[in-house]
Amino acid sequence: MWCMAKRLSLTLDDQDERLLTAYTRGDSPERSALEAWAAERDRALSESASEAAVIRMLIRAGMEALQDRTLERGYSELAEVMRAGAEESRAARERHVSRAEGGQDRLRS
C-alpha cells in the first residue's frame, strides 16, 4: 500500500534536544522503553534508526497516550451521567413505593 508522506520541518529548543538525545542513544533506559513500546505494537525501531524515525515513534506514542487519556475522560464523564441517572431512577422508585404504601395504609384504615 502506497501512501504519501508529508515532510515537515521541526524546530527544537535546547530542552527538546536534550530530551530527544535520551531516546536516540541506544543504551539509554528511554530508548529501551521506546523500543519495547514499538515492539508491543508490532513496529520496529532498529538500533540504527534515524533521529527522524525516533521522532516519528515518539509522536505516535504521545498521540496514543493522549487518545487513551481522552477515552478515559470520556468514560469517566459517561459514568457520572449514568450514576446521576441511576440516582434519579432510585429516587423516583422510592417516591412511587412511598405513594403506593401510603395508599395501602389508607385502605386499611
If you had to describe this structure to a student in words, what would you say it looks like?
This protein is an all-alpha fold and 109 residues long. It has one domain. Helix content is 74%, strand content 0%. The mean pLDDT is 86.
Element layout with pairings:
Blueprint: H1 14-24, H2 29-40, H3 51-108
Give the distance, in angstroms, between the N- and C-terminal Cα atoms. 82 Å
Number of domains: 1
Q: Write down the overall mean pLDDT.
A: 86
Which structural class is indicated by helix and strand composition?
A: mainly alpha
- Multimeric organization: single chain
Rg, nearest Å? 28 Å
The sequence of SSEs as H and E is HHH
What is the share of helical residues?
over 70%
For the secondary structure, the number of strands is 0
Number of helical segments with 4 or more residues? 3
The low-pLDDT segments are none
Global morphology: rod-shaped
The largest β sheet comes out as:
none
